[in-house]
Amino acid sequence: MAIDRYALAKEMRALRGLARDKWQQDPLPVGPAATQQLQADIDLYELHKNIVQLETDGYTVIPPGKAAPVAIIERIKDAMLELEARVDTGSLGSQSGLGSTLFHMLPEHEVFEEALMAGPSLTLVTYLLGFRAKLSQCTGLIKDSGAPALALHADHSGKFPAPWPKLSNYSVVTWVLTDYTRDNGAVCVWPGSHRWGKPVPPDMVMAHDHEEVRVLEVPAGSVIIWHGSLWHGAVPRTAEGRRMTLVLPHVRDPVQPQELFWASVTPEMIERHPARFCTLMGLTSAGPWLQDGPDPARLAMGPTSGSQFE
Ligand SMILES: O=C(O)CCC(=O)C(=O)O
Ligand SMILES: [Fe+2]
For the segment 85-96, what is each residue's pLDDT rounded down to a tens digit? Predict the structure, then answer.
């Protein structure tokens, strides 16, 4: 049976109405005001070195305790393990390079909202994708001992045709939940590759040992963020035990997110966060729409001046 499009439009209108009310108290900036607000946030959280590293290397790491108190890490892990026990991840295969994968976790536990809204990481999302960035996935990765390498790739691959523009359109925020070492199957990156604007050539996808590839040996609690054109992957997990990771990819305003957050967000979730949460959920973007078409009030919330930080 088809989805009732009139009922769906009505439900979306109600949620978007809540988003519009939030926004009226606390609108997101456009034009020079967006740049000024971003600069103020970078100063507030002392992220200047991270911004330089995003420009030069295409990725950066926020140390444990800076994005959120370290206690959040155990709470995220507990929520993921509880979900893993409840959800069937078997078909996805824990022996793939991504590990067993828990999709669309946001509505399952409030701790994921806390991670999403952490000021320092969200500021780096703004730097890469603008204030109107939307959450694209809230996904958990669990890799067991013996998990193979994840092939080198850029996250823009398979989404946007190359040559890719200078700006990122898709950026992953990675919450490292267990220590990353080479034996533990850490993420690895090719610093500076984000400037080439092209996919990893087929003969390089398993070049994890190339001298330019850097294994990110960082402790649990670190938060990594990268530009969508950055070449990265993961080395195999040879150590005992499990590697756990929360990945929060984000997209720019006009890009379609991979997970349907507008379909699972609740009025209670909207109520407990600032207006920006509604934008992350896709509730202030012009689309998607049904027979009701784009609401002019929502069009007015969109990016207007062409600034990369809107
Ligand atoms: O944590 C990993 O193994 C890398 C996952 C990845 O490539 C990504 O999140 O874009
Ligand atoms: Fe990736």
Answer: 988 765 555 667
Ligand 1, residues 245, 250, 259: which to mutate, most atoms within 8 A of Cβ?
245
| SS3 at position 26 | coil
Q: Tell me the two tokens of residue 292.
A: 């009701």
Residue with tokens 């990156």: 189
Nearest atom of ligand 1 to the alpha carbon of 174: 9
* Averaged pLDDT score across all residues of the chain: 96
In the reported structure, the alpha carbon of residue 245 is separated from the centroid of ligand 2 by a whole-number distance in angstroms of 12
- For the chain, list the domains and their CATH numbers: 46-285 (2.60.120.620)
Judged by its nearest atom, the ligand closest to the C-alpha of residue 172 is 1
- Return the axis-axis angle of helices 31-45 and 119-129, rounded to nearest 10°: 140
Whole-angstrom Cα distance, residue 178 to residue 221?
A: 8
Share of the chain above pLDDT 70, in %: 97
Nearest Cα to Cα of residue 277 among 292, 286, 287, 265:
265
- Residue 95 class from Cβ within 10 Å (0-12 exposed, 13-18 middle, 19+ buried)? exposed
Q: Which atom of ligand 1 lies closest to the CA of 141?
A: 1
Cα(155) to centroid of ligand 1, in Å?
9
- In the chain, the DSSP E strands lie at 59-62, 100-102, 134-135, 139-143, 150-153, 170-176, 187-189, 214-215, 223-226, 232-234, 243-251
In this predicted structure, what is the pLDDT of residue 95? 66
Q: Which residue has the tokens 């190359």?
A: 162
Query: What SS3 state is found at 253?
Result: coil
Bridge partners for 5 per DSSP: none
247 lines ligand 1 (CB under 6 A): yes
Using the 8-state DSSP alphabet, how is residue 23 labeled?
A: H
